[in-house]
Design brief:
The chain is mainly alpha-helical and 166 residues long. It contains three helices and three strands, in the order H-H-E-E-E-H.
Length: 166
């Protein structure tokens, strides 16, 4: 079928339907209803396809984010474990500020409290608050508060004797 025949066929089809629509109101209503039904089905299918595409994109994004979050959690966990290990061995590494026997592990909010000279039986002339940091880690808010209290001299010695428990 060439273009002229196709154009003639479409135009004659339109003329036939146009004549019937004008002549018969019931036929016009049925045609309108059919067109409306086709449009509703088309839009319903388009909405379902859109939902399916959205769901697939969402699942793909969730999977990608989950993988990235897991990798980040593993990386952070390794850093924390490495830091904890460094805290435990720090007194035995070069450059530690006192004899390892003089240091007591506290953990929070400072890693060690040291009494230089105590292990050798010498008088304690100072007390050290030691915080071990590895990599690019920074002092936490609480650690900064402790450092500020120590540096500004807001440190005191308290002797506590509990009341008799009966």
């Amino acid at each position: 079928m060439n273009r002229q025949n196709a154009a003639f066929f479409v135009s004659s089809l339109l003329k036939t339907f146009a004549g019937k629509i004008v002549a018969d109101p019931f036929f016009a209503a049925v045609c309108g209803f059919c067109i409306l039904a086709v449009c509703i089905v088309f839009f319903a299918v388009a909405i379902q396809i859109g939902r399916k595409i959205g769901r697939l994109e969402s699942e793909r994004n969730v999977a990608r984010l989950l993988k990235a979050n897991r990798e980040d959690a593993i990386k952070r966990s390794r850093a924390v474990i490495g830091g904890q290990m460094a805290e435990q061995v720090a007194p035995f590494l070069a450059g530690f500020p006192c004899n390892p026997a003089d240091a007591r592990f506290v953990g929070k909010p400072v890693d060690f409290i040291a009494f230089p000279g105590a292990a050798e039986g010498k008088p304690v002339s100072e007390i050290l608050f030691i915080e071990v940091k590895t990599g690019s880690s920074l002092l936490s808010k609480r650690e900064k508060e402790v450092k500020e209290a120590v540096c500004s001299g807001r440190v005191r010695y308290v002797e506590y004797t509990p009341a008799d428990i009966r």
